[in-house]
Amino acid sequence: MRYAFATCVVFLLCLIAIYVASDHYSLNQLHRALYIIFAVALVVLAVSGYLLSRSSLEPINRLAEQMENLSAEHIGQRLPISEDGTEVEELTAAINALLDRLEASFTSQKMFVSNVSHELRTPLATIIGGLDLALQRQRPEEYYQQVISVSLHDAWEMSHLIDELLDLAKADYASDQVKMEEIRLDELLIDVRENLLRANPGYQIELLFGSDSAEEDDSGITVRGNVYLLRIAFSNLIENNCKYSDNHTSFVQISFWQEWCTLLFSDNGMGMTDEEEESLFNLFYRGEDARSAEGHGIGMTLAQKIVLMHQGEISVRSEKGEGTTFLVRLRHI
C-alpha cells in the first residue's frame, strides 16, 4: 500500500516536471530533462521500495526471532500481539492458537505417560517383590502356590491394561481410517451379553427392546460402525453397571426414534455424585468407590471416544445410592 502511494507520487512529480519543461525548453533539452527525471524517479522508487519493504518485513523478522526462543521446555510462552490491525497481528494470533493446542497435547501426553507408568509399576512391583521373597529361602509349597497365583493375577491385570491402551489408541483414529459396515445393534448386544456372561457368570444382563416394529423393519436399529470398537464400548458400559451394583445387574434398552437409535445402560447400584459425573469420562479417573471394583479408569474414556468416533452422543445420569444410567445415541441408516 505504501509502495503504491510512493509510486503515484513520483509519477505525479514526473508529469509536473514534463509540463513545466515543455514551456521553457527546446525539444532536445526536453528529452534530456525527461531522461534525468526518469533516472531520478527510478532511484527514488528503488530507495523507497527498499525502505518500505524493510519496514514492512520488520514485524515478520521480529516474530521469527521470538519464535526461535520457543521450545518444549517453554511451551507456555506466547508471542506478543501488536494490535495494529495488520496481517502480522492475524498471523501472531494464529500461531498463539497453535501453541495453545500444542501445550494441551503436551500436557495430555505427560499425564498419560505418568498415569500409565504408575498403573504398570504397581503390579510389576508386586510381582518382583513376591518372587524376590520366595527366592530368599526355602518355603512351604503352599507359599509358592500363593506367590504364583498373585503374580499371575497381576500379570493378567497388566495384560488387560495394555489391551485397553491399545484399544484407546485405535479409538483415536479418524473415522475414515476405520472399517465401517452396517451393524444390527440388537444382534451385537446379544453377542456382547454372551461374551460377558461367559467371562463373568455372576453378572445379570437384561436386554429390553423398546419397539416390536424392529422385527419388521430393522433399519431403525442398524447403524454404520466398526463391530470391534462398538463391542468394546458396549462391553465397558455394561461392565460398569454390573461392577458397581450389588446384584451385578445391567438393564440394556434399545429403541429408535426419527434418525436416532437410543441405547440405555442402567443399574440400581451405588450411583455417583455430581462431581464424579463431571469427571467420569476423564482418562484414568476413578471415583470414591473405586476400591469396590477392579479397573484402571480407561473404560469410560474409551467408550466415549468410540461413540464420538461414530458421530454419536453419550451422556450419564446418576443419583448417589440409586443407580446410574448411560445414554448412547447413534444415527441409524
List the helices and strands and how they pair.
Blueprint: H1 2-24, H2 27-68, H3 87-136, H4 141-171, E1 181-184, H5 185-199, E2 204-209, E3 222-225, H6 227-243, E4 249-257, E5 260-267, H7 274-279, H8 299-309, E6 313-319, E7 323-331
Parallel strand pairs: 2-4
Antiparallel strand pairs: 1-3, 4-5, 5-7, 6-7
Helix pairs in contact: 1-2, 3-4, 4-8, 5-6, 6-8
Record keyword descriptors for this entry.
single chain; 333 residues; five-stranded mixed beta sheet
Quick structural gist:
The chain has 333 residues and is α+β, with helices and mostly antiparallel strands. Helices cover 59% and strands 14% of the residues.
| Mean residue pLDDT | 79
Distance separating the two termini? 55 Å
The gross shape turns out to be: elongated
Low-confidence stretches: 212-216
Largest sheet: 5 strands, mixed
SSE order: HHHHEHEEHEEHHEE
Strand numbers in spatial order across the main sheet: 2-4-5-7-6
Structural class: alpha+beta
Structural overview:
The chain is of the alpha+beta class. Strand 6 and strand 7 form a beta hairpin. Helix 6 runs antiparallel to helix 8. The protein is elongated, with a radius of gyration of 35 Å. The two termini are 55 Å apart. About 2% of the residues have low confidence.
